[in-house]
Amino acid sequence: MSNAQVDAAAPRPREQWTGQVGFILSAIGSAVGLGNIWRFPGVAYENGGGAFIIPYLIALITAGIPILFLDYAIGHRFRGSAPMAFRRLGGKWLENLGWFQVMICFVIGLYYTVVIAWALSFFVFSFDLRWGDDPAAFLTGDYLQVADPGISFEFVPGVLIPLAIVWIATIAVLAAGVAKGLQRVNVIFLPLLVVAFLILVVRALFLDGAAEGLNALFTPNWQALGDPDVWIAAYSQIFFSLSIAFGIMITYASYRNRKANLTTPGLVVAFANSSFEILAGIGVFATLGFFAFQQGVAIEELEGLTGVGLSFVTFPAIVSQMPGGPIFGALFFGSLTMAGFTSLISVMQVVSAGFQEKFGLTVRQAAIRVGGVAAIISIVLFSTTTGLLALDVADQWANNIGIVASAVLTSVLVLWVLRRGPELRTHLNALSTFKVGRIWLVLTSVLAPIVLGYMLISRIVTLSVEGYGGLPGWYLVAIGWGAIIAILLGTFVLSALRWRQDPERFAPWPSYPPGGTAATTGRNASDGGAS
């Protein structure tokens, strides 16, 4: 395709949320995911209990919210998915960062879908308590049929079928578009999730031993505040739970109208996400208190307090022992399914939007083509007898290396190399009721890269030296480092391909410096692709 053909390609009108409420609910739906339910309670318990709330809130205010605002500013000012927004912000070389974020989302989407499929299966299993008296053996044996580390093509029908259902639902939502797809699902699912989880929490609070569980979670260990690892855990939890720094909030903010308030909704999203995490902690530990009471042991003697073990082993065991267990189990796994699905569609929207804009695809074309390819890879890799191990390893590398590296690069390249911080701060303040001061620039350009850089380096060293989970080195290289290599290859290949329309045929609005005239190559500066 010639340059003339590229320049002549007329951009499609940009999709938009129907209003501020739709955006806020969708952003909260993205932030509230599996990690809120199965990760936060255990992390808080292991890092000082009630005392952990202090570094947690400090991390929220000094890193979580500032980086969330940074994502909003980039996406809203430059009106595009991550690749287009970074291309418009810094030129062709910075487009690589956008595709890096797209590829992270693509890899995460492959395995995140599988956990939702498990939750959907266990929602059904709850009604007849199919896991029996030994949920651990049921999970790894009867249900997942876990094999030794390796690459297996022995498919597990009990996983493959719900996984295919989740992918079909995901593609359908993406194909319906931003307003009729993503927003509508979040408007329905998020209130249902909150109501279902509130019912679950209220029920848990009246179980025998609930008070002991809450005491275990919230009793402060003030000595833990002197441990740097506790602070790193707090920043890590905030960072991963807010859906920041890997393209989601950049993409979501780009669908807001030109004069939309940015910072106030951002505060609502951040504190709503944290509120749900604390609610999840109350529900989970009240339930664990009941389990410890039934077992005649202390909370600290229980196993499986986070992740897959908490959700698919410990909770089924609890459900089997409690009055009205099937209803409690259905509420828990229904909540897990809804929380996971609203986060999944936000992850895959980053990928879909990037391909729409680069290759001139319609919303439906991108959803079907990108979603179809992702579904095939996901089913081949994760619905087999080695799916659990592959998921665990891929998650460690994609989250702890991919996303953290993306955040560090964004901060350093945008704020230090290109020095666009003052422009982005001005953009936020020109449109928002809650103004950000120079401290915002300090937090995003100094504190964030220092804390996240330390997290990144320490995790790389740990994974390289100590390995992970006692798994063979060749397996970690193939799946873990292989995921990072795949992300990088995809980044460079997609960046090198030609755009269907010229991404730089654009002028940001409002102009910067204020009162200046933004240069444009054929588009009205006040429009900038927002129509």
Task: Give the low-pLDDT segments.
Answer: 1-9, 518-531
Mean pLDDT across every amino acid position = 92
Note the overall shape.
globular
Strand content: under 5%
Number of DSSP-assigned strands: 0
- Helical region count? 21
Task: Report how far the terminal alpha carbons are from each other.
Answer: 26 Å
What oligomeric state is this?
A: single chain
* Whole-angstrom Rg: 23 Å
The largest sheet, given as strand count, sense and whether it forms a barrel, is:
none
Instruction: Output the helix-strand order.
Output: HHHHHHHHHHHHHHHHHHHHH
Task: Provide the structure class.
Answer: mainly alpha
> Percentage of helical residues?
over 70%
Transmembrane segments: 21-40, 52-75, 96-125, 159-178, 185-206, 230-255, 267-293, 327-355, 367-391, 397-418, 439-461, 473-497
Main location: membrane
Protein name: Sodium-dependent transporter
Keywords: Membrane, Transmembrane, Transmembrane helix, Transport
Question: Which labels suit this protein?
Answer:
mainly alpha; 531 residues; 72% helix; disordered C terminus; 21 helices
In a nutshell, what does this entry contain?
By secondary structure, this protein is mostly helical. 72% of the residues lie in helices and 0% in strands.
Description:
The chain is mainly alpha-helical and 531 residues long. It has helices at residues 3-8, 20-31, 34-38, 40-46, 53-78, 82-90, 92-125, 135-143, 157-176, 178-205, 210-218, 228-241, 248-254, 263-295, 307-321, 325-359, 363-382, 387-417, 421-431, 438-466, 473-496. Helix 5 (53-78) crosses helix 20 and helix 10 (178-205) packs antiparallel against helix 16 (325-359). It is globular, with a radius of gyration of 23 Å. The chain starts with a helix and ends in a 35-residue tail after the last helix.
